[in-house]
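Posting this for the archive.
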Amino acid sequence: MSMPAIFLGLALVLLVTMTAGLLRIVIGPSPADRMMAAQLLGTSGIGVLVLLAPALQMPALIDVGLIFALLAAVSVTAFTRRRIDQD
């Protein structure tokens, strides 16, 4: 089995875990649960991009994944600040 096939298989596994995160976003029950599920989607999405980069021979996907990681950190900070200000 070749490395690109392994990378594609692992990316598929991560996509399956993302469906679990989507379910958690829909059914909740609390905003914190939904935010954690959104973080799961972001982290899994970054993992998928990093796995697809060598499999598809597109190194630019790693750069896109790094930008998404920075955006995820900012979104968690904004959510945490909002929760602290409300309490």
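The chain has one domain: 3-86. The radius of gyration is 15 Å.
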